[in-house]
Specification:
Blueprint lengths: L3 E5 L6 E5 L5 E4 L2 H7 L4 E5 L4 E6 L3 E4 L5 E4 L6 E6 L2 E5 L13 E3 L26 H5 L18
Parallel strand pairs: 3-10
Antiparallel strand pairs: 1-2, 2-5, 3-4, 4-9, 6-7, 7-8, 8-9
Length: 156
C-alpha cells in the first residue's frame, strides 16, 4: 500500500490527502514566511512527486511574490501551502500527524530571529499548571476539526 498522509485547516473547511512519500521537510526563516505564518518561521514539507488531492474545499491563494503563492483557509486563516514553480509544499502543522514529519534543514537563516535558537531554554509548563488560567482553560470546548477525516463535521 502506498504511503498516505492527510490533514487540513483548523476549522475543517479545507482538507487534503497526499498519496506517496513526502519530500524534503524544512523550516524557513525568511521574512515572507514569518509573515505568512505569523510565526518565527514556516515549517513546510514538499509533496513533489506525490499526489496531492483536496478532499474538502480548496485553499484560497495570496500571491506573495512574483513567483510564489500561498494557500490558506479563507474561513479560519490556517496557512496551508507554499506554491512555487518547482512544486508545492504543505505546512507541517496542518498534517493530522505532524509529529511524524521532522524538518531536516533550515532555509533563509539570514532572517532568523535572534532568540529562536534559545527558545528551548525557556522554562516550560503544562497548559493547566497556571492556577489562575486553569479553570478557564479546563472549561474550553474546542471547535477545531479533529486530526482525522470525518463525515460528521462540523458538529450539529
Amino acid at each position: 500500500m502506498s504511503e498516505m498522509h492527510s490533514g487540513g485547516c483548523q476549522c475543517g473547511a479545507v482538507r487534503f490527502r497526499v498519496e506517496g512519500p513526502l519530500g524534503d521537510a524544512s523550516v524557513c526563516h525568511c521574512r515572507m514566511c514569518q509573515k505568512a505564518f505569523g510565526s518565527f518561521y514556516a515549517p513546510l514539507v514538499s509533496v513533489h512527486g506525490s499526489r496531492l488531492a483536496w478532499t474538502r474545499g480548496a485553499p484560497s491563494k495570496f500571491q506573495s511574490s512574483n513567483a510564489v503563492s500561498r494557500g490558506f483557509c479563507a474561513r479560519c486563516g490556517t496557512p496551508l501551502t507554499y506554491e512555487a514553480p518547482d512544486g508545492v509544499a504543505i505546512a507541517i502543522g496542518a498534517f493530522d500527524r505532524p509529529q511524524e514529519i521532522a524538518p531536516r534543514i533550515q532555509w533563509g537563516i539570514e532572517g532568523k530571529l535572534p532568540y529562536v535558537d534559545r527558545v528551548h531554554e525557556l522554562p516550560g509548563a503544562d497548559t493547566l499548571s497556571d492556577p489562575v488560567a486553569a479553570p478557564f482553560l479546563a472549561g474550553l470546548v474546542s471547535y477545531q476539526h479533529p486530526d482525522h477525516d470525518t463525515d460528521t463535521w462540523p458538529p450539529q
